[in-house]
């Protein structure tokens, strides 16, 4: 799995609108790296990486923010930093990683240290639209690329998000979940955390059966909107069951097809657990998000984005379609990494 979760421990967002924020995010990242068990050399490396990314946003970006969160793959742990801004964007993203490179009007000021020190460093940028950059540093050897990843962001003014996502692998198929705890704040986060725990400890069951299991398991919480999807590469399909307002769509070759979610609240009242199926090829993307993200997003205005990692796609959708008046979550998945 990619991210540990959107709630365990809570990822932190930092608005980079003042030079003093660089020191704040650097100290937090060092503390997080030490808490997850990174060695001193890796901690020193990640302090440089986050300082470079933060300083870059302060000097050159519009509405820049950084997400810092722990990541896990089996027994391997690490820290991930995602840099997001709305402008100015870059024509040549690769130039950003050249030491000493500086081009007026672009974000690239020579972040060669980020590329050298990070185990994985990637980005997507469009002139006038902004950039998304991501760097990961691991305790041990870098794991294979993720086939699914996502991001969450709390409502402005809250420190925790009531939205979460989860990913799990099986021998013949893969399953993902997006959960939107009712409301926001700690009570919504508790409902989402309960859903996350049930999803990861449940047996290998069909999406409809899993959502029904969550319906019983969330009865002690305020409830949630939940969709669980299952990608079956051998059959060339994705199966999904949703209750509530989590949006799910399959994007193939620029064509977007939505999947139905039934009305109701998982954990309360009566609900219908119906499973729907859509074709899903090696070129398809599964995009799921909570109602903290506008459903009017489209990938057609971002040439080449659909070929990039799930994390870069999810971060771009969150940046351009996310709303600040609610918790937000975006998950993107492929049939293979």
From TrEMBL:
Residues 134-335 form the PPM-type phosphatase domain. SMART domains: PP2C_SIG (SM00331). SUPFAM superfamilies: ATPase domain of HSP90 chaperone/DNA topoisomerase II/histidine kinase, PP2C-like. It holds the Pfam family SpoIIE. InterPro entries: HATPase_C_sf (IPR036890), HATPase_dom (IPR003594), PPM-type-like_dom_sf (IPR036457), PPM-type_phosphatase-like_dom (IPR001932), Ptase_RsbX (IPR039248). It comes from the Bacteria. PANTHER family: PHOSPHOSERINE PHOSPHATASE RSBX. This is Transcriptional regulator. It comes from Catellatospora bangladeshensis.
């Amino acid at each position: 799995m990619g991210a540990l979760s959107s709630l365990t421990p809570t990822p932190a967002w930092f608005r980079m609108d003042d030079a003093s924020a660089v020191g704040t995010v650097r100290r937090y990242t060092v503390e997080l790296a030490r808490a997850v068990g990174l060695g001193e050399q890796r901690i020193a490396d990640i302090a440089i990486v986050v300082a470079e990314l933060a300083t870059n946003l302060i000097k050159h970006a519009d509405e820049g923010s950084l997400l810092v969160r722990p990541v896990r793959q089996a027994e391997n742990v690490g820290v991930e930093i995602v840099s997001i801004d709305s402008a100015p964007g870059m024509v040549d993203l690769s130039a950003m990683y050249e030491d000493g490179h500086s081009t007026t009007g672009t974000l690239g000021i020579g972040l060669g240290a980020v590329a050298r020190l990070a185990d994985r460093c990637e980005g997507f940028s469009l002139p006038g639209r902004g950039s998304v950059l991501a760097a990961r540093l691991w305790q041990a050897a870098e794991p294979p690329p993720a086939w699914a990843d996502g991001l969450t962001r709390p409502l402005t003014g809250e420190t925790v998000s009531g939205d979460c996502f989860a990913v799990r692998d099986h021998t013949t198929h893969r399953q993902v979940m997006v959960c939107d705890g009712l409301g926001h704040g700690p009570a919504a986060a508790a409902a989402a955390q309960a859903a996350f725990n049930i999803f990861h400890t449940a047996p290998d069951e069909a999406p409809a059966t899993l959502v029904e299991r969550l319906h019983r398991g969330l009865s002690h919480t305020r409830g949630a909107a939940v969709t669980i999807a299952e990608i079956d590469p051998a059959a060339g399909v994705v199966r999904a069951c949703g209750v509530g307002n989590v949006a799910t769509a399959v994007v193939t070759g620029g064509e977007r097809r939505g999947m139905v979610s039934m009305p109701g609240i998982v954990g309360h009242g009566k609900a219908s657990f119906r499973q729907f199926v859509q074709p899903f090829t090696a070129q398809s993307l599964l995009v799921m998000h909570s109602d903290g993200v506008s459903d009017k997003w489209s990938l057609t205005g971002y040439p080449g984005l659909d070929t990039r990692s799930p994390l870069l796609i999810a971060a771009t959708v969150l940046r351009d379609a996310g709303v600040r008046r609610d918790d937000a979550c975006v998950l993107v998945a492929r049939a293979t990494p």
